[in-house]
Amino acid sequence: MAPAPSSSLATAGHGKTKSGRSSSSAVRPALLAIAVSVMVVLLMAVLFGARWTPSGGHGGGADTSWVSAGARVVLNAVSSQQGADPVVKVAQPHDRLLGGLLSPDFNDTSCLSRYRASLYRRRSLHVLSSHLVSALRRYESLHRLCGPGTSAYERAVARLRSPSSSNTTSDAPSECRYLVWTPHAGLGNRMLSITSAFLYALLTGRVLLFHRSGDDMKDLFCEPFPGATWVLPEKDFPIRGMERFGIRTRESLGNALGRGEGGRDPPPPWMYVHLRHDYTRPGASDRLFFCDDGQDALRRVGWVVLLSDNYFVPGLFLIPRYERELSRMFPRRDAVFHHLGRFLFHPSNTVWGMVMRYHGSYLAKAEERVGVQVRTFSWAPISTDELYGQIVSCAQGENILPRVRESSSGSDNATAIPGSRRQQQQRPARRKAVLVVSLHGEYYERIRDMYYEHGAAGGDAVSVFQPTHLGGQRSEERMHNQKALAEMMLLSFSDVALTSAASTFGYVSHGLAGLRPWVLMVPVRKKAPNPPCRLAATVEPCFHTPPHYDCQARTKGDNGKTVRHVRHCEDLKDGVQLVD
Question: What's the pLDDT score for residue 539?
Fold first, then answer.
């Protein structure tokens, strides 16, 4: 059915001339002329704008961040006719390369999860820009050129070891530059900070190296870049003790700026960036990383060591010099982690074996998979009974899980759930698998017993599972991290997700899935809030500790109000996250 005409056109079409005849014949040529003019302008933008690359950019695609949704459809159609890649696209079902996100240059058996994990997830409908795909391919080439084991890497380490003996300055265009990431905190925090570090490396032309300070991260992930390793060789590397760096480290960016050495010439051979949760404390200058002062100081430094437990991607969107390139990589700002996480994180064959054995045994036959991730924090205390009630109230009130029968007699009358807001929809009975992931077993046991003792109203067959309940977080142990990664992957196979507020574990799981989760809100005075949960506004994780600094005014600011696509998090009000 054709859309109804706008009110202005309808009025014009029914005007009368002095002779009493309709003026539609007079108006029609004018409207035609306007329409043709608009089409000509759009066509010129397509033919010329789609191939224009600004001198300061990295090339590889058109800047179409200004193009409306309708114009982008025209642009895609014309581009495909000309044999060029579309500016944005959605991966087709069963596309092992995820629309070009993944490189085809890997041996399938060396990392079984790389091309198979997406087959177990709901199809991603998040658009992927050709500019991001081009940037990833360029980075892979850079990593092969400059990564460990290459002559370029050996020269860079030699300059780091004896900077005074090298005549090569850090401004030389042929010099490889590096960003060394150091692990800190739990696995969820680590994966979010690695993603942030990788995006920063993309923006600044650096090679990301993964510093494994112990065995806890071994046999966890496959190599993400073809033909090269991202693991920093520890033997004879001149910078020692990186895992112990902190806010007082003399070589930190904040301390260098505090001493007035941001523009030092010659630049230091390396510099440390401290972005842990304490980097914003009074008197510290580390937050200037998100200002031009900090970026100018780092620009000529060959080696940057980073220690962070934050997802600081939203902070990169606050830096004006990167705004244009970021808009080209991510026309939709709410899918940054979804794309980069699926590019970077592929479980090792050891971890993938755990995932496949559990999925095949318990989840494969379900028609719907529900992921429930439960995490408690000392700063938000709540009793087990209260939190269990919050989970059930949310899950049944939002029709995530079916209500239970009133009694064991077989009646299908559902019990009333306090705080429920949506009636159970009438539909055929289904097999539903509920995957509970928590450090503790109480919530799994209560949900399981609820359906075992009463049954699901409407006849659904509900099965409840929990892979582990380890009792506490032990991120320094390899097996603990392998099990945690396996559970993240299993949760990412969910059709619907219910997660705890402020949990980085949950952020990773639903981010890989590309799902907006239902979020269990933070307790209020040890009680479950009302409503108990909310549907997240975005797939993006929360940056828990943003700088909250106004770089121009050089004073405190509110980064949730700086740019329109960075807003305060719903689950942690002081944090910020990307929205679209």
Answer: 97
